[in-house]
Description:
Layout: H1 14-17, H2 26-77, H3 82-143
Amino acid sequence: xxxxxxxxxxxxxxxxxxxxxxxxxxxxxxxxxxxxxxxxxxxxxxxxxxxxxxxxxxxxxxxxxxxxxxxxxxxxxxxxxxxxxxxxxxxxxxxxxxxxxxxxxxxxxxxxxxxxxxxxxxxxxxxxxxxxxxxxxxxxxxxx
Length: 144
């Protein structure tokens, strides 16, 4: 396990490995929980990455909205007739709705991707964890 992915540092669990309890493999227990913390750390990293991506995307959207509004205002001011102004307003409205729908789909994809990645990490660890517990008790039962 890399030091950067450990939430409490690489030696956080070292103190527990010095304890000795009859019938309990402390090293295995420490390794088990280290893997759990690592999985949580990776899931959190995926979530933070998704949130950063959303924040960047929103920043880009706001910039584009202000630029578009400025251009729309200029176009409406330069319209030759009231009919031309109404036509341009309808075009801007249609374009705005289409852009908003596209952006909403993009944002949903970002959120879904981050959630899928985080959930995948946690699900994989849960399956692995259940296998580890089953093996631990199967081994203990076979020796007694």
